[in-house]
Amino acid sequence: MNWVYWLFAVLAVLVAVSLSAEAVLEARDRARFPPPGQLVEVQGRRLSLVCKGHAAGPTVIVEQGAGSPSTLWWPLQDRLAAFTRVCTYDRAGYQWSDPVAGERTLEARVNDLHSVLLAARVPGPYVLVGHSYGGPLVRLYTHLYPTEVVGLVLVDTPEEAVILRPSYDEYAKKIRYFAKALEIASRFGLLRVAAAFMNHVPAGMDEKSYQAMKAAMVRPDFFRAMGDDPISLSREPETLRQLSGAGSLKDLAVVVITHRKPFPGPAAVLEEGWIDGQRRLADLSSRGELLVAEQSNHMIPLEEPDIIVNAIRSMTNTLTLR
User: Fold this and answer.
1) Is the pTM of this model over 0.70?
2) Which residues on adjacent β-strands are paired with residue 193?
3) Does 228 lie in the same domain as 94?
4) pLDDT for the residue 7
5) What is the distance between the alpha carbons of residues 308 and 94, in angstroms, rounded to a whole number?
6) Domain count, the chain
7) Residues 168, 234 contacting (CB under 8 angstroms)
């Protein structure tokens, strides 16, 4: 049986070496890719915030989707900065933002953003832009801090009827299990090896930003945050229900942008009732507007960024003139 002991010994050495190498490479990445903006302290943690532009009018704040680092929005942020003040940030565990252990509530996430904006003295009022999972968050922000928000742009965000059903619960659980598996793999550097073959830089993004994003997306913290995002919607049905109701946003400026091409793969479970939900989101305000990105599936910021840029430009111009 000596060979069994040798096998376990070799495996133990490989595990130790892999864990140590990953820790060294993560430290190297942090040195290679320092935070591009501010690290704002919130309750003893630091959250990454990048603000650009100095135009008059409301400040645009972007809340990204689950598993989507703010880097994906930087090409749009550069375009938006030409005519408005705009900030992107990362929730806990994403990119340069410190992680948080355990499950988190939707309100905890929203309060993080509120605290960041206060601590960094980002001037209001705000136009909140939420993509996907970010949509319920910016709606909850508007519910908790209504005097700070003058407009909402909801980019392919799920409405309550799509979320509050068993099929979504099963979908969110699968994402969490998948993210947990990737978190474990990332601890041993396996995803870092796979990422080395991903060299296609998204349109509008420079090489350095892309490499920084890749470095952040192979760390365990990223997958822990990614796994808890979707399932958090299932955990808080009452929080979501309190955001519902036609006219509940009164005459707030609201633009809803939705996809035309169906969700791919397992996400297709969200397609049932999706467009009806998008109409209900637009009906939250007497000034609600529904736009369709004809050439896009869920990743409208990458596939049809013009429709988002134009919607934000129109909204900020109108609000500045009021």
Assistant:
1) yes
2) none
3) yes
4) 54
5) 23
6) 2
7) yes
